[in-house]
Amino acid sequence: MIHIGHGRDPARPTLVPREEMTVRLIHEGKVKRVFSDPESDERLIVEFTDAITAGDGAKREVLKGKGEVACETTEFLFSYLEGKGIATHLIRRLEGTKLLCKKVSIFPIECVCRNVAAGSFARRYGLETGRPLSRPLVEFFLKDDELHDPMITMDAIVRLGMATQEELEFMRRVTLDVNYYLSELFRQVGLRLVDFKLEFGRTENGEILVADEISGDTMRVWDENRSSLDKDLFREDEGDVVQAYKRLLERIREANPEQVPIREETLLVHVMPKSGIKNPPGEVARKALVRLGYDEIVDVRMGKVFEIKVNTPVSPRLLARVEEMNRRLLANPIAENTRVRLE
Ligand code: TMP
User: Fold this and answer.
1) Total of domains in the chain
2) Each residue of 41-79: pLDDT tens digit?
3) How far is the CA of 120 from the centre of ligand 1 (A)?
4) Residue 174 sits in which domain range?
5) In angstroms, rounded to a whole number, what is the distance separating the alpha carbons of residues 177 and 200?
6) What number does the ligand 1 atom closest to the CA of 219 have?
7) Tens digit of pLDDT for each residue in 132-183?
8) pTM across the whole model
9) Ligand 1 centre distance from Cα of residue 195 (Å)
10) Residue at a domain's end among 102, 131, 148
C-alpha cells in the first residue's frame, strides 16, 4: 500500500480520511508505473523507475538515479512546452520520481520526429548517421514490443480505428511544434536535437495532450562534439547514462525559454455546402464547364477555404476557438460542413 500526499483542492471536501487514501497500481510499463490518484478520478500519478531498456525490452538494467533525472527532465520540458502553449498531461511534480498528471488514455502509437538520420531511420534506408534531413520528418510506430514496434502508416492507424484522421493530423502537427520549441531551446546551449518520440493521450472530454515523457530515454541529443547525452549510450554500451542525462538537464536549464520566439502556425478551414443542399455557384461552374466540352463532369460543388495564421501552437484550446469562429462567422452550420486541416 502506498500513500502519497500532495496538495488537496481546498474547495473540495475530502471524504476519505487521509490514512485510508490508497493508490492503486493501474499500469506497469517497462520503465514507469501508473497509479490512481486517491484525490481525483481525473488524475494519475506517474512514477519513473530506475529501469532502462532497449531493443523493446531485450536489454534491461537498473541504474540508480535514472528515474529521478528522467522525471525531472520531463517536468522541466513539459513545463517549458506548456509555457509556449502546448498542452501536456503534466499537472506538477510530486516528489523525486513522481508526476501528477491529467488522466488520459494513451493512443497505442509512438510519434517520432527526426531532424537528422540516426537509429532505425539510418538503418532502414542505409544512410550515414548524422545526415541532416531537408525538413523535420514525423513517423508513426505501433506500440507493441512483441511485434518490435513496427512502423505504421496514417491510413493504417485510421483504418484500424486507433485514431481519427483529424486526431492524427493534430498529433503530427503538435509533434512538429514540439520539435521546433525543443530544437530552438537546445540550440541556445550548443545541443542538437537529433530525434525524439512522443506519445499522446485523450482525456474523457476528447482533448488530446502530449503525455508520457520527454527525457534522455526518449530523445537523441548530441553535444558540439557529437557525443550523445541520451539512451544511445546504453544501447551501445558507451558510458554512464545517468551522468549524461544529468549533464543534458543541466545544460538545458541554462537556456532561456523567453528567447525562443513563438512560431506562426497556419490552419486551413474548409467550408463546404452540405450534400443535398443547393449550391448555385457550383451549378453555374458545372454548366459552364460542360459547355466548354468537359462532358465527363457530373457535379461541381463550390466551397471556400480560409487560411488562418495564428501566433500560438496547435492545442485543444485553439481547436475549440476555431470551432467557435466557424459557428460565429466562417460557416453557416445549417447549410455547410467545416473541416480544419493541419497539413
Ligand atoms: P529509432 O531511431 O529507434 O526509431 O528511435 C527514434 C527516436 O525515438 C529515438 O530518439 C528514440 C525514441 N524511441 C523511444 O523513445 N521509444 C521507442 O520505443 C522507440 C522505438 C524509439
Assistant:
1) 3
2) 999 999 999 999 999 889 999 999 999 999 999 999 999
3) 8
4) 105-259
5) 14
6) 10
7) 999 999 999 999 999 999 999 999 999 999 999 999 999 999 999 999 999 9
8) 0.93
9) 8
10) 102
